[in-house]
Input
Amino acid sequence: MYKGIAGSDGIGIGNAALIKEQEIKYEQNSALSAEEETARFDAAVDELIKKTDAMAEEMRANVGEKEAEILMGHSLMLSDPAMTDEVRGIIAGGLTSEAAAEQVFETFAAMFEATGDELTMQRAADLRDVKSGIIKTLQGVRDVDIKSLPKGSVIVVNDLTPSMTAGINKDNIAGIVTETGGRTSHSAILARALEIPAVLSVEGVTGMIADGSRIIVDGTRGEVITGPDEKTEAEYAEKKAEFDKCRKELEKLIGKPTVTADGTKVELVCNIGKPDDCAAVLEKDGEGVGLFRTEFLYMDTDEKPGEEQQFEAYRKAAMTLKGKPVIIRTLDVGGDKDIPYLGLEKEENPFMGFRAVRYCLENKELYRDQLRALLRASAFGDIKIMVPLVTCVEEVRQAKALIKEIMAELDREGVEYNKDIKIGIMAETPAAAAIADLLAEEADFFSIGTNDLTGYTMAVDRGNAKVAYLYSAYQPAVLRNIKRIIECGKQKGIMVGMCGEAAADPLLIPLLISFGLDEFSVSPTSVLATRDIIGKWSKAEADKVAEEAMNCATESEVKALLEARRK
Ligand code: PEP
Ligand code: MG
Output
């Protein structure tokens, strides 16, 4: 058995389709004139752009917008003169197009890779995918056609590049095993979107598995079993049937309300990063959006998105969700969310530094653009504004004052907006928990950000493996903060939601029901499972477990108790 990263849930059983990239050999120095070589390069780029655009269209139709965007990104790279001019410059020095492309794209890829940042590193993989596309086009080498693999194929590959997967036939692919890539790699995103079980980062796997051999992929546990005996295969077939049955059964919950076992209705909404994610919200029957992380609008470009561009994005989200609530968080920059062109200074403790609402209130022009866009978009749906990382009352008052100013401006201009727009805050710092009673006087709603609340409460840097054992929402200190925030919000009669990862944790759901959480905001793929678990608990039962859990003295006691009471 081989261990890897659990990339996409489920069990896949089939025959290995081993995909080995052909080694391509080419000359370094061109026998052609620089003009002829450049023309060869330009023709290859044109051909590849056309092919990539066509693949993106196919991806859009068969998989989804988000996946198509990855390929559109490749097309943009191919049209980017910063890259191609550099290649042409090297060709002018006498090299072949292949050698020049290799040199330029590899230099950029190595630079991106050295950052150590997962998202930037992912761009390095994209650059290499584009580079190999150019070289293959120049050499007339065709890509592996995954589309034509027979039913029951388990793809075993170094990395599943977006260009390989265009038009992937979900019915024929039983599983995916890769040698590289983590949970946020394109392979993982694609596998989850298609609901194909996947195990990633299995070291040396392409050298260990024979093409056509029997293979089992356990994408939930991150395990790969090769050459299983009859008994093992039968066991896994049973597990697979059980998993598929559960997934299918969850689909019955589509269109059903989210209610506890004793009939209390709660809201079950989604976390998104882009307006296009709203399609997945609707598909998985999310009841709206509880957290729109607007950083992605800023991260995906090389310069600030202006008011107009943001307005279009927010309006699109509101209109796609046709009147369902959409909570949009204002820019949360800093800490782990760097946006290079904003020129944030390097700080000793970036998580405790100049970030989120602190940055926005000091950079009023930037904040204004976003708030104006949000207010204008509020005329097109049920948009609510949420302010991140609040630690004191002044921050809420200042943000509200700025919003009021912009409202007066829009009134003067005769621009429509929702005059009764709700303004809430993320409760994600111990300070916010401590003054939750005071903040509840100022905010229209709370949304608990357990990702940050856990880190700040426990004084733990998530990236530091030495203290990772402290980073847990089951810590009594974190649970007390969560409980207090919910209670203070309820006392003042405002809506309290949760958009951190803990909202989708099946073990914590009874506690959240007991504390009185009104709204759970989870990733679209977690909606149905969360609805299912909420429906299993009555308030009285949840209260019993919550009382026991709040009497536990340690994280491991809490966890063991919740495991024992799990439904
Ligand atoms: C959180 O902190 O829990 C949260 C939802 O926000 P983010 O993960 O974007 O910081
Ligand atoms: Mg946060």
Notes: The radius of gyration is 26 Å.
